[in-house]
Amino acid sequence: MITSSPPLLDAADRVLVLDDGVISAEGTHRDLLRTGEGYRQAVAR
Predict the structure, then answer these.
(1) H-helix or E-strand spanning residue 26
(2) How far is CA 20 from the centre of its chain?
(3) Which of 8, 20, 23, 25 has its CA 20 to 30 A from that of 31?
(4) In 1-45, which ranges are continuous DSSP H helix?
(5) Contact 36, 42 (CB under 8 A)
(6) What are the residues facing 15 on neighbouring strands?
(7) Which long-range contacts (CB under 8 A, 24 or more apart) does 13-20 make?
(8) What are 1-19's pLDDT values in tens digits?
(9) How far apart are CA 17 and CA 25, in angstroms?
(10) pLDDT tens-digit map of 12-40
């Protein structure tokens, strides 16, 4: 599934962040919110 919906991302077991088709980060939504500034800006609106 491809989404930027925080509720759907939070329900996922694993989230992959793609940057130009390359995986740039992987983890849970909550872990990525805590550690990834770019991820946080993209999904936490």
Answers:
(1) strand 22-27
(2) 15
(3) 20
(4) 6-11, 29-35, 37-43
(5) no
(6) 27
(7) none
(8) 899 899 999 999 999 999 9
(9) 5
(10) 999 999 999 999 999 999 999 999 888 99
What CA–CA distance (Å, rounded) separates 45 from 26? Answer: 20
**In one letter, which amino acid is 2?**
I
Please give the pLDDT value at position 29. Answer: 95
- Cβ-in-10-Å burial (0-12, 13-18, 19+) of 32 comes to buried
Cα 19–Cα 1–Cα 40 angle in degrees, nearest 5: 50
Mean pLDDT of the chain: 92
Enumerate the β-bridge partners of residue 18: 23
Q: Find tokens 């088709």 and name the residue.
A: 21
- In this prediction, residue 42 carries a pLDDT of 87
